[in-house]
Design brief:
Helices cover 48% and strands 9% of the residues. The protein is built from three helices and two strands. By secondary structure, the protein is mainly α. The relative contact order is 0.15. The N and C termini lie far apart (36 Å). Helix 2 runs antiparallel to helix 3. Strand 1 and strand 2 form a beta hairpin. A two-stranded antiparallel ribbon has the order 1-2. The longest helix has 17 residues. Could be a mediator in iron transactions between iron acquisition and iron-requiring processes, such as synthesis and/or repair of Fe-S clusters in biosynthetic enzymes. Necessary to maintain high levels of aconitase under oxidative stress. One of its GO terms (cellular component) is cytosol.
Length: 91
């Protein structure tokens, strides 16, 4: 059964995640306030960031950087800045 939450990123009611996908308090906050749709958008951004910045998830500093970007994106409405990436022009 799906659950509906008010998504902080999308600012609307949306389908919530099925389970906590990230550890700790932050993971709990994501589970309670971020929709499947917003999480999927973040996953795409995260992949681009990992590739762009050549981040290594074994590196604590890199994980911290990624987490800061994630929090800014999901909860503060920030967009992920990826150098050399031009988003498709809006029609």
């Amino acid at each position: 059964m799906s659950r509906t939450i008010f998504c902080q990123r999308l600012q609307k009611e949306a389908e919530g995640l099925d389970f906590q996908l990230y550890p700790g308090e932050l993971g709990k906050r994501i589970y309670e306030h971020i929709s499947k749709e917003a999480w999927a958008e973040w996953q795409k951004k995260q992949t681009m960031l990992l590739n762009e910045k050549k981040l290594n998830m074994m590196n604590a500093e890199h994980r911290q950087l990624l987490e800061q970007e994630m929090v800014a994106y999901l909860f503060e409405g920030a967009d992920v800045k990826i150098e050399g990436y031009t988003p498709p022009a809006a029609e």
